[in-house]
Design a protein that fits this description.
Elements lengths: L4 H19 L4 H9 L5 H12 L4 E6 L10 H9 L1 E7 L13 E3 L12 E7 L8 H11 E10 L6 H8 L5 H9 L16 H4 L1
Parallel strand pairs: 1-2, 1-4, 2-3, 4-5
Length: 203
């Protein structure tokens, strides 16, 4: 592992807490966990990473983002969107039509998108675990992203307890469990395959 990664993570944790304090009602159990146990949710680290990447005029494509780029922090999502020169949402779900922050909405798979590329950043938040054909997806990303561009992926590891449990539960029953766990409706729950959910596969 790159020796600079632990320091980078520590810096992101500090930034994540600053973002939470500035843009959310930073109290209750979440604040207790992060204050007492020094735990930072991976979603908040992802938001902190985007804070560093999304700077003035960036061309950003959000893949599979649905109704918003950061559902747990709408205020900060709006701040990020305001920094972009172009923010495009691509998602096969009709949820994408309700996204208020983006400049363009395309209801299709990324592989079927035929619009212009030239993006500086592509984000896949809780998307990689749903991908059926990783090679096809990554070829399309390579086509759309500029040579110096970045792809930011937030996804569960294939062998995390949650991923193992998800693979043991039939996809048809996932909506019942996600509704019980976090209130998501059936339209926001999709089949999982975990075909690009290790560091090696992502590389």
């Amino acid at each position: 592992m790159d020796s600079s990664i632990p320091q980078q993570l520590d810096d992101l944790k500090v930034l994540a807490n600053q973002i939470l304090a500035a843009t959310t009602d930073y109290r209750g159990k979440r604040a207790w966990f992060q204050g007492k146990l020094q735990y930072v949710d991976p979603s908040d680290l992802y938001a902190a990473l985007l804070d560093r990447i999304v700077t003035g005029g960036v061309q950003w494509v959000d893949v599979g983002g649905g109704q918003t780029v950061l559902p747990w922090n709408e205020r900060f999502a709006a701040q990020l969107a305001g920094r972009t020169g172009r923010l495009v949402a691509i998602d096969p779900s009709p949820n994408v039509q309700m996204n208020p922050l983006v400049h363009e909405r395309h209801q299709c798979r990324l592989e079927d998108y035929r619009g212009p590329g030239g993006f500086d950043l592509a984000t896949l938040r809780m998307v990689a675990e749903h991908v059926v054909q990783p090679a096809e997806l990554t070829r399309k990303l390579a086509e759309l992203i500029r040579p110096a561009g970045l792809v930011a992926v937030l996804t569960p590891h294939r062998w995390s307890p949650a991923s193992i449990a998800a693979r043991l539960i039939p996809n048809a029953l996932h909506p019942c469990f996600t509704r019980w766990l976090d209130g998501r409706v059936a339209e926001e729950t999709f089949p999982t395959f975990y075909r690009m959910n290790t560091r090696t596969r992502l590389r």
